[in-house]
Write a structure and sequence with these properties.
Elements (H helix, E strand, L loop, with lengths): L1 H14 L1 H30 L10 E10 L2 E5 L6 H8 L3 E7 L4 E7 L2 E10 L3 H4 L4 E3 L11 E5 H8 L2 H4 L3 E4 L3 E9 L12 E4 H7 L12 E6 L5 H8 L2 H5 L8 E9 L9 E2 L2 E2 L4 H28 L1 H13 L4 H38 L10 H27 L3 H6 L6 H37 L9 E5 L3 H4 L1 H9 L4 E7 L9 E2 L2 E2 L11 E6 L3 H5 L3 E3 L13 E4 H7 L8 E4 L2 E9 L14 E5 L7 E6 L4 H15 L8 E2 H7 L2 H35 L1 H9 L4 H35 L10 H27 L3 H5 L3
Length: 790
Amino acid sequence: MLSNYLKIAWRNIVLNKAFSTINILGLALGMACSLLIFLWIQDELRVDNYHANGPQLYNVLERQFYDGKIRTGKGTPGLLPDELKKLFPEIVYAAGFTGSDAQLTFAVGDKAVKETGRWAGADWFNMYSIPLLAGTAETALNAPNNLAISRKVAATYFDTPQQAIGKSIRIDNNRDYQVTAVFEDLPDHASTKYDFLLNWQDCLERNSWMKEWGNNGPRTRIMLRPDANVANLEAKMRFLMRKLDKKLNPKQFDIQLFLQPYQEAYLYSNFENGQQSGGRIEYVRLFGIVAVFLLLIACINFMNLATARSARRAREVGVRKVIGARRGLLIGQFVGEALLLTVLALGIALALVFLLLPAFNLLTGKHVSLNLTDNTFWLILLGMTFLTGIVAGSYPALFLSSLNPVRVLKGSLKFGSGARLFRQGLVVFQFGLSMLLIVGTIVVYRQVNYIQTKNLGFDRENLIYVPADGELGTKYETFKAELQQMPGIQAVSYMGELPINLGSSTGGVTWTGKDPNVNIQFTQTSVGYDFVKTLKVKVKGRDFSKDFSTDTTNYLINEAALQRIGYKDPIGQPLTMWQRPGKIVGVIEDFHFQSLHDPIQPLILRLAPNATQTNILVRTQSGQTSQAMASLESLAKRMNPKFPFSYQFADAEYENLYKSESMVGELANYFAFLAIFISCLGLFGLAAFTAEQRTKEIGVRKVLGASVSNIVGLLSQDFLKLVLIAIVISSPMAWYVMNRWLQNFSYKIGIEWWVFAIAGLLAIGIALLTVSFQSIKAALMNPVKSLRSE
């Protein structure tokens, strides 16, 4: 019997090539998209989940209470890891870890290359499952001059990991470090990548401020005993900073420590009012819902097309019932046909995924692949195939198997209003989802475009960042003087951090009239002379100038800082930071120095005596970037021959801040297009079904004088009503979803009414184009053919 059903199913596929092709194509596209999204979600869920001690690993975070706010900070004091390990027996290992990449120049013989890495505590390799190719976890980072490098770095300088052990590498032409361990290159699903690790004591020696309990910045990672009670440990740790930081006044500024599971940190990185409030997990959920919706749209498309042909299969059902076929067998037959089509669609979907993976990886920045040896992958694939086949074939099977054989064989088959409403409801659902994706695509595109084109308050065009390595920092004044004489250079200054990513803050600021019971956090960094000119920011008052020797203790503030300080006439007014009294010499117009997800914070700029360990800012003449780059590179190589020349363009760095949003926008475009395309296939099926059901009515109307345009309008208006209903139902949902997404940005677009108008007109236009083919075909049919049975 099974072989007989398979033969019948195959015969139906072959005899109805157009129908079968459309059905298989719709299912294949839906399954291919769902598979790609599944691979992406699987990769996201794998990030940082490969460590053997994963469930015992935690990040130590701070809840900071000040100025009526609760802020969650990932930075902690540099001395905290060792203190926690001493105080709490539940903690087996603890390690400090720097929060950002360090670009250091490694030199071995004549070879000098910039490498990317971090500083980490001595317990690091005991905590994390990072295979050591040479060296041991206990000795890898246990002395200030120890250096652990990756397999890639070892191959660059020493060929093999074993040859690297015990060798010296000179870093930044300043100090020699001994290679004590070589670790395997970090996998793609590691959230933080580094090619070297330096000992934590070395970091503390380089940054004396990290030794003070009042300063935050480094990260603290701990590993607990398997039997440790996390809630009890958190309760004991909560107010520890009050004991360790003697200067902490809880009435002004309080800190509470808490723990976040390390394996959750990647996906759950956002906090609001001290509580976890999402992160990349939102995109995982969003794309998961999109995958289900695309598969549902494809299944609905199958249902509609199958129903459109139901009149042709009705006699077959009638004959089978007359000769004794039970309804269960008929359901099995039609579901089996759907499963066969789904299996064929799966083969095409796998081929599409294989072809599209390189482009998909390029778009998402991933390295996902089809792991055909993974049993879980095959189980999920089989489950998705079976579920798709059942869902797609269920309604046609139940509908056709319920037909009355007497009515069918008499030729008086008519479909009730219930079946019609169900099919129309499916179309409304399809186009509702399509409308949701169209609105989402427009809103995401506009927000990303707003971000990329927004005036940040400084000119990021023709602005270059150059690390102040070696002689460029120690002989900055000479470098600047010579560079300004070269063609294509407009202005030169320096800055302690990049102007789009200022993160250092302080509460050690006082001024005349300050309320002693209020603690306000100010973002702060160091800058050089000509800062205003180089960054092209607007200032009331003046920039730092060599004409004023006292400027080494003076300050520039932004408008947000002025608002909190409260001076009505700020120029020349006193301001003290870190017990260093000075005066305000200028007020800079607010500019964005952090992500647009965050509001502009109060900012204080101080003048630093030199550019060591900072970023040199170079403003080039418009249209002379190539010439300026040549001048910059030649001078840097001449003055700083032991360091490779490196630079960053400000606009490129800015775009890197919003890679996730840009990726979502691109994917939304593709998913919206595919959803509309598959929905149109379903609409095509319903149009064919309607035309088939109203063949005789159309014939009568034509005999009575109806024109082709009358017939087309008659058939099209029913579908337009469905699309309009879909637009009305989905528009509030689309507004709600996209408004929630926009809440992640402090600076955002509004969702205007015309967004829904454009999306609606687009949906209507696509629906009309889809329906018009069947409508015109039916309207042009010879009425003699349609009425010859009468």
